[in-house]
# Entry
Amino acid sequence: MKNYKITLIKGDGIGPEIIDEAVKVLDAISTDEDFELKYDEALMGGCAYDITGDPLPQETIDKSLASDAVLFGAIGGQKWDSLEREKRPESGLLRFRKELEVFANLRPAVVYDELVNASSLKPEIIQGVDIMVVRELIGGIYFGEPKGRDENKGWNTMVYTRDEIVRIAHEAFKIAMSRDKRVCSIDKANVLDVSQLWRDVVTEVATEYPEVTLTHMYVDNAAMQLILNPKQFDVMLTGNIFGDILSDEASMLSGSIGLLPSASIGSKIGVYEPIHGSAPDIAGQGIANPIATIASASMMLRYALGEERAADRIDAAIKQALSEGYRTKDLSAFDAKEICSTSEMGSIIANYAAKCTL
Ligand code: IPM
Ligand code: MG
# Structure
């Protein structure tokens, strides 16, 4: 029997509730798969600051690096918004991504047939959408120097080096090879020098993948095209901030931000987390949608542990729960047969996953 060590970082707001449901689903299948998961919890975000004075204690980094994967909930909340920047939950998360060197953030935006009425766009526009946003995660304007502010001025710098662009481009092309072999690289090369370098380097890397079709699009146009005709996209390759914005936009194609998982990978271990935030306004009410986190756990099984069948079982169980009409509150208006709580949704998916024989 294989043994995997998983670091759980529940975080703030709805983080603990949604992680608990993902663990429930993982445990429901690992019993009859040939592996065992051992969990160890670690602190990050506002809760870590409250206890230790640091949003990212060193212990969390050490534990994570000593495990096979990190399953992460969400961090942040108004309570910590007025802290100085380094003490804020978000700074902990950014430092964490940097320490783990997770430079590639994979954000699949898939429209479930069962939820084709849930999007604010017309069903014929979104049915069949299957996009993979490949977002560079530890560079760009989030990390560039110089940065700072005084009373009258604030500044950040968008920087990318050739090496940073090369490695994320390879990731996008490799993923495209296992999909529809199309990469659309997003930039603002008509205005930004950093984007012109991005475009030139991506074009160079593309020569190593002759089967993949590369196109380029300015980010403002991409934001429009995602709404106009999202099916034109297969893999979208973006820098850090453009990917942050476009992946939130892409989540609305699927109907709820509570559905989208992500995998952050690099040369060390990976971090698997929903793309949504900690939603403090609904924390503790049992109404958060756990599907994004459960789907992130599935990505963890697939990418970090190579447990493909287990991942397929979870994905099938999510689909089954949706097609049977189970909905959390965020999706209650769309073909719902039964409205369920966070924990009921977790149990339903766990149950289907346990029964699923693939
Ligand atoms: C995300 C989030 C983070 C980001 C925040 C919480 C720092 O919005 O993962 O998309 O901007 O990367
Ligand atoms: Mg974001």
About this structure: The pocket of magnesium ion (ligand 2) is lined by residues 244, 248 (CB under 6 Å). The chain has a mean pLDDT of 96. Residues 15-30 form the longest helix (16 residues). Residues 100 and 268 are 6 Å apart (CA to CA).
